[in-house]
Sequence to fold (273 residues):
Amino acid sequence: MMRRLRCMLLLCLAWPVSAASAQPAAARDSIRTMIADAPVFGMFRSNYFVTGIPLDRPVGSRTADAAFRISIYLKCWQMSASTTLLFTYSQKSFWNIYEQSAPFRDTNFNPGLWVVWPVVRGDGLRGVLLGGVEHESNGRDGTASRAWNYATVSYTCFAVPRWQFAARIWYGIYDREGNPNWFRYRGYGQLSAVYTSRNGRCEAALVVNPTGRFTSFNLTGECYWRLSRKPGSLPCLFVQAYSGYAESMIDYDRYTAMLRVGIAIKPFGLNFY
Fold:
C-alpha cells in the first residue's frame, strides 16, 4: 500500500511541474496577480447548516438531526509568486436537535497547513495542486476519543468547461487501540466531480471515497442553488445526501445514510473536498 501511495504522490507532483514549465509568461503573471490579490482570510470549504432524516432507519427524534460546518483559511506566507502557505480550520458538528435535551452527538475539529500551487496551461488556470498536513479529532477522551494525523495531496483539474475533477490521497497515524481498523472505513483517498450550470447559480458535486479494502464506497452528493444572481459567496439553498461510513468520527465504523437540506455559504468557482 505504501509503495502505491508513493507512486501516486510522485505522479501528482511531476505532472504539474512539466505542464507549467512551458507556459506563456503573460498567463503566469495573471495568475500570480490573482494569488497576490486573494484575501488574507476567507472560506476554505463550504459553510452550511442543514437538517435531515435517515434513509436506512425509521424517522424519529433520535434519528433525525442537524449538522453544520465552519471552514476558513488564513494566508500565512506568500512563499513565491505562485505558491502560498495556508492555515485552514474546519469544524463539523452533528446535533441531535429533535431530542428533548438536544445534545450534540459529535463535533470534529480539523486544523491543517496547506501549500497551494496553481497550474497554468495556455492562457489560464488549469488546475490547483495542494499538499498539506492535517489533524482531525473529536475532542473527547476514553473510549469515545477519535483522532488521527495525516499528510495529504490533492489535485483539482479545470480541463473541461463548467466541470472540476479532483483526486486526493492521504496517509497518517491513529490510535489503533481506541480506533481499530480506521482506514478500513475511512479509506486512503477520494475522487470528486463538480458541475457548475451555465448561469453560475447552481453547482452539483459527487464525492466518492473508497473504503480501505475497496469493497464499498462512501458517497456524498451535494447540490447548491445560489439565491441571488449577483456573483460572490452568497447564501445558497443546499441539499446533501450521504451514504457510507465515517461521516462522523464517533460513528466511523457504523453505516449511515442521511438526506439533509438547509442553507450554505460557499466560494463559487473553486471547491476543496
Q: What stands out?
A: The chain has a mean pLDDT of 85.
